[in-house]
């Protein structure tokens, strides 16, 4: 399986990079994983609704330019459906079984994802009703993808 994680912004925090790299290394025996960063849109701290929409649209265009035509797209969005680890494992297994070997996860910027990105998505996944920094979501996501592959292979994992 080929997994792409398209994310807005650069990751600067070394501790997050180390954690992400560790899980990508572990995932190497299960899948090919790549992280694609697109630039975030520079904006002042205080934005009007129209300006927020404009920022999300510009970031959305950058994201969509990186999405493969034949990818199954899962957007991470607070309003998405909440899955447990077993459900994520089941969904990834189902995609592999039915020949959908390209899966793309999308993590938006601090304002979220544009309507166009949400419309292109095949599923919307929420990890919590809480808001997490999008940089931290990268680490949480790669850990959960790793856990999903362990579950699907019947290998031990912590519940």
UniProtKB/TrEMBL annotation:
Keyword Transferase in annotation: yes
Pfam families on file: SPOUT_MTase
Localization annotation: Cytoplasm
Keyword Acetylation: no
EC number: 2.1.1.177
Recorded GO CC terms: cytoplasm
Keywords: Cytoplasm, Methyltransferase, rRNA processing, S-adenosyl-L-methionine, Transferase
InterPro entries for the chain: Alpha/beta_knot_MTases, RlmH-like, tRNA_m1G_MTases_N
Name of the molecule in the record: Ribosomal RNA large subunit methyltransferase H
Organism: Anaerobacillus alkalidiazotrophicus
């Amino acid at each position: 399986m080929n997994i792409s994680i398209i994310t807005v912004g650069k990751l600067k925090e070394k501790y997050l990079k180390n954690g992400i790299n560790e899980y990508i290394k572990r995932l190497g025996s299960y899948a090919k994983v790549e992280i694609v960063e697109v630039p975030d849109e520079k904006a002042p701290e205080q934005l009007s609704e129209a300006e927020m929409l404009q920022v999300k649209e510009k970031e959305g265009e950058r994201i969509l330019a990186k999405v493969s035509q034949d990818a199954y797209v899962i957007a991470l969005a607070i309003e998405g459906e909440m899955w447990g680890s077993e459900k994520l494992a089941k969904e990834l297994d189902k995609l592999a079984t039915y020949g959908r070997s390209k899966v793309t996860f999308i993590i938006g910027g601090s304002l979220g994802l544009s309507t166009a990105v949400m419309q292109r998505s095949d599923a919307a996944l929420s990890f919590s009703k809480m808001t997490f920094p999008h940089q931290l979501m990268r680490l949480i996501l790669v850990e959960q993808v790793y856990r999903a592959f362990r579950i699907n292979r019947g290998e031990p994992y912590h519940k």
